[in-house]
Amino acid sequence: MNLDGFESCTGVEPSAASDGSTDIQNKKEETASVQKLPGGLKLGCVLAMAILLLAFLPMAELDPRFPDASKGLAVLMVTALFWISEVMPLSISSLLPMGLYPLFGVVKASALARKFFSGTSFLFIAGFLLGLAIERWNLHTRFVRIVLSQIGNRIQFYLAAFMLTTWLLSMWISNTATMLCIMPVMKAFLSSLEGGHPSFHSTMLLAVGYSATVGGLSTPVGTPTNGIFMAMFQEFWPDEEEFSFARFCLVALPLSVLLLLCVYVLTCTVYACSGARIVVNREAFLGTQQLGKITFEEMVVSFNMMCLVILWFTASRIDRFPGWKKWVSTDLDSGSIGLLLTLPFFLIPCGRWLPSALRHALGEDRCQSVCKGPSPNYILDWESVKRDFSWEILFVFGGGALVAHGTVESGLAKVIAEALENLGLNIFVFNLVVVTVICFVTEVVSNMSTLNIFGPIMATAAQHMGSSPVQLLLGVSFASSFAFMLPMAGGPNMVVYSTGRVSVRQMARFGFCLNLVAIVVGSLYITFAMPVLLGDRYEDLPMPAV
To answer: Which of 41, 429, 489, 546 could form a disulfide with 425 if both were Cys (CB 3.0 to 4.6 A apart)?
Structure first.
């Protein structure tokens, strides 16, 4: 506020004006003194801890055989500190190892730079482009509504249908995007229930959110942690054949199905114990879910997706079938295959630009090319991808590769692995402890950070204990997604919490029960089922290399 001319404009006595000016000035000073940098105290504490770790920890000697182990531990702890505190964005904190490892002489910068971007990064890009195409043309919404239109009037069937469709969609598009897409349909359904039943609303929302989380476990492109596992496999055992798309699904899909069934049984148990009888107004619900004819763009994306999934699954050896790569090019991997099929989305024109004869043959109503945003020209365009692509995850992928490389190169992984071996735990108890720790750590730390921190150490520890490192690395990857208790633990949890129909207490109670179930099921699965599914292929792998 400008106070020039205050006296003449108001006719106030000079002394009064002076007093008023003094009061206003004092208030300004008080306001200025109250204002603080948001998160300033937290930032100061994190920086102080980081400086202390970097100054004193490298001086310690963890093992005379590995003089750089203490330096590797210092870098790992500082990176983990920034990941956990989130004083910087996760993607920016992931760049810290690129500067810190060369600073302490652990790894050359040129060697780290070659690790930052890998074939798995391109697999993630391909998966994300496919997901963006599905979302842009509402193919996921059509799929959900087609399934729901076939269900009767029983609430258990609707619950199963919502969970199943969410689970299937989250295999191919991000868990958060899946929940955001399905939420309008969910809300319309819950509004059609006669008698309200708010407690069932919250239970069903949680069940569908958890379905998105466990669905992401099923495929390499379902959640970023799966991609990080693929990158670590390439990093640790570069001479091995690629861990194929089909092999990953063979191992991950049964666990995902088991967890989905557990969520459904828990939800039905809660519903049965409540004693409520819920009536679905099927006609009112389906009346809000009408869709027009399938569009040209939906046809293109559906065909492309089917081709891509078939090629991913059949690229490498399946029993006696050697995989089609043998006859085309053995240098292809899942990432390059994905790009070969998703990049044409930028070249295929939308239905409204097709020749008139083709539009007439398909039907003009199928070629309207209606989507969110400005009128499109192609199935995908750079502006929409630039806006919706999660670029930051590529940085986290790269940062995780740097941490894995530095942890093994410095000898830190071996030092910790030998200490764990000396505990004398049998393999099941060891797996149970590891899964439990990671399950609860990932409630407060991002799942990608959790895997990047624990993955290299646990793979080396498994090797020392005479177990398969691939099995435990997969177990750590899966357990990093067992985040069911808190809203900030994962995207689906936050979407469910944002509806205002689920309290933190409800989520924590249901999520804690599911955490316990996931820990037991996951530990048993890793110890007894995974060796059968993987066979003896990875029994004699060398120690993780760099």
So the answer is: 429
